[in-house]
Each structure stands twice: as C-alpha cells, then as structure tokens.
C-alpha cells in the first residue's frame, strides 16, 4: 500500500472541493417530447400497478398529475402524456370482453373502462389543444411502441375523438 505525502493531498484537495459551481444550470433540460414521454411512463407504471383496478388506476394517475403540477410550473406536457397513456389503457381494457361470469363492477366491466377512457381523453384533448400537439406527435414520443402499437394507439385516439 502506497501512502500519499500530505503535501500532495493538500494540493489536490482544494481543487476538488472548489471544482463544482452549485448554481450552474443542468445540461439536461426537459423538452416538450421528453415531458410527454415522462407522463406516458407514469401512466404506464400506474397501469402495471393497477391493471384491473379502475379506482386504483384513477387514484394513481391523479396523484401523478398532482405531483407534477406541484413540482413544475409548466406541467402541461407531462399531463398530456399522462392522460394519453391513461385514456389508451382504459380504451384497451374496454375492448376486452366481459368475463363469462359477467362483469365485475369497477374492475372488469367494459362500460366503466370506456367511461374512464372518455374522461381521461377529455383531459388529454384539453392539454393537446393548449400545446398544439397532434396525436401523431404525442404518440411518436413514446419510443418503446413499435409501428403496430403506434397504429393501435392512433386508432384508439381516433375512436375516442369520435371520427
């Protein structure tokens, strides 16, 4: 084991301590696209945690939106992504047939999922209008979707829009 002479340590230490400017801006600035994707990811995380629990999904999405609004002065892009993801989750769930034994209210029934898809889509559409983002642009920020997934997402948005 080699011991460093004290004088050499004394020369190096001040440079390390004084090296960082704590008031310097971070290099990574959020973009409209990165915030939409971050919102989408939050909705995806909520859907994994509450895949068949409608109220849990709603509570999780609402909490994520509230947190974003408290943390950032302009949370609109995040909310756009959040409600894009949430509305598509509920739309996909609404497409699934009710179980053979009948729907379980609030969990697996198509009507509840469709109603939630429409409510969350209304928030998405409002944020979309504020930001001037098209469906194609919003869905395009979600880089983990393949072409088929993007086409399905766009078709569901079109259906929710009533076209």
Can you describe what's shown?
The chain is mainly alpha-helical. It has one domain (32-161). It has seven helices and no strands.
Q: What structural class should be given to the helix and strand makeup?
A: mainly alpha
The rounded distance between the terminal residues' Cα atoms is: 74 Å
Q: Oligomerization state of this entry?
A: single chain
Shape annotation: globular
Q: How would you characterize the largest beta sheet?
A: none
Mean pLDDT figure:
85
Number of H/I helices: 7
> What proportion of the residues form beta strands (DSSP E)?
under 5%
Q: Give the SSE string.
A: HHHHHHH
Any idea what the radius of gyration is? 23 Å
Percent range for helical residues? 55-70%
* Low-confidence spans: none
Summary tags:
7 helices, mainly alpha, 163 residues, 68% helix, globular
């Amino acid at each position: 084991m080699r011991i460093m002479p004290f004088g050499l340590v004394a020369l190096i230490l001040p440079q390390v301590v004084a090296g960082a400017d704590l008031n310097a801006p971070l290099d990574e600035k959020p973009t409209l696209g990165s915030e939409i994707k971050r919102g989408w990811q939050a909705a995806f995380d909520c859907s994994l945690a509450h895949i068949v629990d409608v109220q849990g999904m709603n509570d999780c999405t609402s909490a994520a939106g509230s947190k974003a609004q408290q943390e950032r002065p302009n949370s609109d892009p995040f909310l756009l992504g959040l409600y894009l993801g949430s509305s598509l989750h509920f739309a996909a769930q609404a497409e699934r047939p009710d179980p053979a034994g009948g729907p379980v209210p609030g969990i697996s029934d198509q009507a509840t999922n469709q109603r939630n898809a429409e409510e969350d889509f209304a928030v998405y559409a409002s944020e979309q209008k504020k930001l001037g983002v098209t469906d194609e642009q919003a869905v395009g920020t979600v880089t983990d979707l393949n072409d088929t997934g993007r086409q399905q997402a766009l078709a569901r948005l079109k259906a929710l829009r009533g076209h």
